[in-house]
Prior knowledge:
Elements: H1 2-25, E1 41-44, E2 47-50, H2 51-54, E3 55-61, E4 64-69, H3 75-84, E5 93-94, E6 99-102, H4 108-142, H5 149-182
Antiparallel strand pairs: 1-2, 3-4, 4-6, 5-6
Helix pairs in contact: 1-4, 1-5, 4-5
Amino acid sequence: MIADVLADAGARMDRAVEAAKEDFATVRTGRANPQMFQKILVDYYGSPTPLAQLASLNNPEARTLVVNPYDKSALKAIEQAIRDMPNLGVNPTNDGNIVRVTMPELTEDRRKEYVKLVRAKGEDAKVQVRNLRRKAKDDLDALKSEVGEDELVRAEKELDSVTRAHVDAIDEALKRKEAELLEV
């Protein structure tokens, strides 16, 4: 039972770390990256649809991204969704077949602003991991009558080490993203 609680907590924490890394990837750096466009929802025939389901994304150059829609009638909607995306700061161009997105150079102030945004996302992810730890601790405390005190203490120490490892993984991903953002 204790192993089940710890395994479940570990799996949930793994998912929280992966979600944080995906969230970090959506923050713009100096280079064009198709992952930045993963969270863009396009109003396609009245329903919000992820951009990746409507078009292929290619990176022909370091700061250029080409969006090639499968359905050419969605071109205007894709262009508008990219333009309206917050924290992206790009102006896409539409030539009738594709949407070309050129990333402008980031100013130092904008880089610092993005670092603050990434740090906030990192802190949110750490809070999520700590909440998962608290829930797992409550689940362990509920098993108090069924297992011995020593096993419970051992399980809590293991839970703490798992939590620490996941928080460290978030910190490491955060550090890499900050270095990427501040790189000129």
